[in-house]
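Lab notebook: predicted structure, single chain.

Context: the supervisor wants predicted structures on file for every construct in the current expression panel, including those that have not yet been purified. This is the next one on the list. No modifications to the sequence; it matches the entry in the shared construct table.
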Amino acid sequence: MPDSNASDRVVYRTCPLCEATCGLELTVRDERVVRVRGDRDDVFSAGYLCPKGVALGELHDDADRLRQPLIKTATGFREASWDEAFAAVEAGLMPILARGERNAVAIYAGNPVSHNFGANLYLRALIRALATQNFYSASTVDQMPKHVVSGLLFGDPQALPVPDVEHCEFLLMLGANPWESNGSLWTAPNLPGRLKALRKRGGKLVVVDPRRTRTAAHADEHHAIRPGTDALWLLALARVIVFERLAKPDRLAKITSGLEPLRELLAPFTPQEVAARCGIAAEHTLRLARELAASPAAAVYARFGTHAARFGTLAAWATELLNVLTGNLDRRGGVMFPRGVHERSREGTGGGKGFRLGRWRSRVHGHAEVMSELPVATLADEITTPGRGQVRALLTIAGNPVLSTPDGSHLAAALEQLEFMVSVDIYLNETSRHADVILPPPSALERSHYDLFFTRLSIRAVANYSPAVFTHEGLSESAILARLALIARGEGAQADAAIIDGELLDELVQRELAHPQSLLSERDIEQVLASLDGDEPCERILDFLLRSGPQGEGFGRRVDGLSLARLRAHPHGLDFGGLEAQLPGLLKTPSGRIELVSEVVSAELTRIRAQLLEQPPGDALLLIGRREFQSNNSWLHNLPSLATGHASCVLHMHPDDAQRRGLADGDAVRIRSSAAEVLVPLALTSDIMSGVVSLPHGYGHGLAGTRLKVANGVNGASANDLTECVVEGPSGNAVLNGVMVDVAAA
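Prediction complete. Output recorded below exactly as produced.
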């Protein structure tokens, strides 16, 4: 702890590095962060802190972080002014757009976009301006099955239920490791502490995972499952509940269609048949199904390990099926639908246009569009395959797909074939090194922060705003994206970003006016707009969202209502309460009901039956990923406090598998798949299922042309290089788990 200094100032921030949204207390001296600790007064996290949050000042001060735009020359990159950089963008992008093929330009948005409300708001303007169908994001290497299932069942792909962990009595968790990840598609600071509290009050935590993770080690039960078979096992649980007449959907029965055909659809998936494939004994399946059905407040939660697999969509569907069958969907202690305090109230009896897949398809492989996205696993082929619509230009926004998407070496080679590339990024990394222009946004401490996305996944309706800690002499993300959008529209590199600011605000106003109980009725719109708070345009947009939301002050209608000004006055945040029932009001299906069985689901059930007949692989090994407590994808590997002092990128293998191969702990081994081979050290552990090996995500640094001094000194290989560009059925999500590999001495 640093000595106190008269020049010290204390500021409060919400950590933007993962989904937990923890409150931080930062001590700043001489314009440097000298201490980071948990904000004990934060209404949500109450002082909880992980190593990533401690490194926030280190990220800001990183000497490798870009402060000025870079333009590629024949001899490498050189710094440029902002006007010069945008002129270069216009010169490189417009000739491609002038050919009349909007799909010749692609966009890739990385995970950090979700943690940045300015980028979140203004990315839409850029996508619209480019009018391209080639939009890709990190969602199709992570979570797209979850969105597809919510779209099919509820009519809204963004209606993602989360476990009400504060009241749950039986939590069944698959493919997730919140002790390391802090939660995924589930915002709850200090999840380890909340899970301990669940057990302390007499609840039960059951973890199903090929590894005995840190989460599994703290559970009441851990069952090892063969990678890629989660959907089968979940279907077996559902079959037990249906065939033993344990289902009790209660009030859900009145608003759910598709319950009747379940007996026939689930018939093949007996616990005995499934046991041979997944490795979980039938007696355990039977017992757990009965316990799940008997619990008065239970939740089934499945995440990345189940989604990035051959039947990720079906696994996501079976997860929600179990929550429906047991009556635990939209019920206290089960899984419930959060709502951000900036979101307009969901009212009425439900019903809407529903959800559509495949409004267009990828040019090369015919993959279906989902939520206006195509699978990023197909991006390289869209670049390298000639023909009308071939991708000739790419814009990457806060992403490093060379390390985070399948067969990254293939994508890297494809990027070299582009005519033009722009990266909005703070680093010259494995992806942005291929760009012609790099536009660096502010650091996390040089911009204000509000969680637009993760409040929609939160177990409590909280609001927390953080002003910028340091001033920034460059451009904000919103200004960068606005100017890129104006270039794409043909308005030139010198066009004023305020044009986009006004259009986004006008869009919000029109949407509010269209609401049956509009808060703007009989109000002077110009007066309302003039009253908006915020130093940046995106802050004024945020103020509008807060004031028109369910807790908002309604533009003068509620004196004590929420606004940006009120959040400024409450640096530790405001808590508006826990999860509340939202059905049937949030349903947007054409029928206004939960639609359990669709053509998509029926087709996937037919497809998975063949897996029951497959023989488990003999001596082959199945590769899975691994989450680390001190890491969050590739871009935190350049911080010494997180990346040095421990060997993380090692292959975990069961001792029995090593003995059969003549391998010993610490050996250098060669991992070979049908896509590639990599070299890594071996670490033996009985915490992993025999027949399974595990390698963490985000490594593979040290490539020529990058400026990542620390990361380039960290040994490791990219696990994703071992995966082919294969996607799972309906969602287009990359198949990263259950990849068959061979391991031998190097």
